[in-house]
């Protein structure tokens, strides 16, 4: 029984999402990784070195450059025959692609796994993490996406997988890439940062959001996150959103600043090792899940905290 | 141009659901139900496209028990022209939902299909992509902007790290995200008017789709509870705790 993991990358670098997927798949069988793109030799080489990977399939075509789901799904389906599991991380990439693959194969998908109990049994959150369901399937083939925050990463070095070039699938030409706008930041990636500082609606403006949170994040070497209310009010870009419908994070330390603690938000961060909440309302829901709560005005407390950390 | 919108009746997002004592499922008896918030955004987008003269007819579809009718009436009140209810009390997996919607699409021949990016009950996030696959159509997931031309839908998608724009050949399936729009508040006269609009019934059998189940839920459990924390008096105490007690900095 073996597993095909669809690698996530930008044609130059392998995304750490793939390392989480390899770790999660460890108990499922022999692991192969599919690298599809344009001029992806460096990515294929990186995939070869991941510990636990037995084989890397490489498919090159100009129409794989932008990771269009229509094109990649056709390739994944063409490659799927020998595998029982097709797997990716539940990132924007994996969420976009994998259901298309499942439907083309006419097999079920189980999304956003937090635990793989055995080859037929999986655990996943429902209702914004208010409950976890254990699902069993005897389906001959199954498509899976895993929640990165719930699994460690496989070691990026030490493996020596075989490389195999595979033929591209026919071009689908259903959609066309127009443009991409990536936000460049020197901060650690929100999904993998050890410390996350998140701000809510209470910050009041984009200027205040940056003015108050950036120095704190800087002393902690932290990534910055936000509640949906803060994102909706345009204090922070969309991909800062932590929660049920945003990013799922599980850092060592999560500091929630001026965030009420709605279930849709806590769904995205409640597995953090240590949670700190700063809120002026002593009854705010966030205090129910915080390890350390500090009641007071964030505009006073956060600068004090930043100073205290510098000392 | 015809738009098809899929709407699901789910537990209202304000409700904190609880797991049944026997761990068989969550308890959703007597809780408030609403249209899935992402589907509301999909309906709103269709209505806006109609108001902009790009779309001429909006068909809303819902799958589920008798009460899904309420959700369809809401869609009609928001501005959908007619509704189709695929009535069934069986539990539907996303792949089956996609097959049923595909059967409807075969009949209705819509140019664009708008769906929420996820339903806030099962949080599966699969149906739109699966429908696109079954239709051999293009997909624009996590859409935060939609522009329609004669041949294409140009969709801005929210991806990790930023935004991406793709052009989709029509017919296309669009999975909408929160930032696409803010759904309108439905006024009473529209609710009254919606009662007169057509609501047609059908069933999986009528549509020739077998409801099969591949996934068996064996247990539903509460999330791991976190230990109650402590309140600290000031920033200095917090730093001390983080350093010496929690040892995370
Ligand atoms: C379908 C759907 C999906 C959603 N998905 C998400 C999601 O993924 N992520 C998410 O975060 N939300 C999500 N939400 C929204 C969620 O329900 C809440 O509305 C949101 O999280 C609230 O954000 P907030 O806590 O920043 O704002 P508010 O609820 O307005 O809370 C602000 C908090 O700041 C405190 N405060 C105010 N001033 C100060 C001050 N000077 N100092 C200290 N504290 C102060 C207040 O006491 C309050 O607790 C979703 C909602 C829906 C319907």
UniProtKB/TrEMBL annotation, chain A:
Organism field: Neisseria lisongii
Keyword DNA repair carried by entry: no
InterPro entries on file: DHS-like_NAD/FAD-binding_dom, ETF_a/b_N, ETF_a/FixB, ETF_alpha_N, ETF_asu_C, ETF_asu_C_CS, Rossmann-like_a/b/a_fold
Record flagged with keyword Transport: yes
Annotated Electron transfer flavoprotein alpha/beta-subunit N-terminal domain residues: 3-181
Family assignment from sequence similarity: Belongs to the ETF alpha-subunit/FixB family.
Keywords carried by this UniProt record: Electron transport, FAD, Flavoprotein, Transport
Record protein name field: FAD-binding protein
Lineage: Bacteria, Pseudomonadati, Pseudomonadota, Betaproteobacteria, Neisseriales
Pfam families registered for this protein in UniProt: ETF, ETF_alpha
Automatic annotation (TrEMBL), chain B:
Spans through the membrane: none
Pfam families in UniProt: ETF (PF01012)
SMART domains, sorted: ETF (SM00893)
Domain Electron transfer flavoprotein alpha/beta-subunit N-terminal: 23-211
Alphabetically ordered keywords of this record: Electron transport, Transport
Domain of life: Bacteria
SUPFAM superfamilies: Adenine nucleotide alpha hydrolases-like
Keyword Transcription in record: no
Family to which this protein belongs: Belongs to the ETF beta-subunit/FixA family.
Protein known as: Electron transfer flavoprotein subunit beta
